[in-house]
Amino acid sequence: MASNDVKRLKTLEAENARLKKMVAERDLEIEVMREIGEKMW
User: Fold this and answer.
1) What is the Cα–Cα distance from 23 to 41, expressed in whole angstroms?
2) pLDDT in the model for residue 1
3) Quick one: the chain helix, strand, coil %, rounded to 5?
4) pTM as predicted
């Protein structure tokens, strides 16, 4: 692998980790809202 390929891979891996964290946080928020909604009814 060329050094620019390694740099690109590291950048993509970091972005992927950031996006996975965002999705996990969103899923958690949805679950909390769902539980709150169930308790209200």
Assistant:
1) 27
2) 83
3) 95, 0, 5
4) 0.76
- CA 2 → CA 11, 13, 24, 29, 37, distances in Å? 14, 17, 33, 41, 52
Question: In the chain, what are the domain boundaries?
Answer: 1-41
Give Rg (Cα) of the chain: 18
9-41 pLDDT per residue, tens = 999 999 999 999 999 999 999 999 999 999 987
Structure tokens at 10: 């590291």
Give CA–CA dist 34/31, Å, rounded: 5
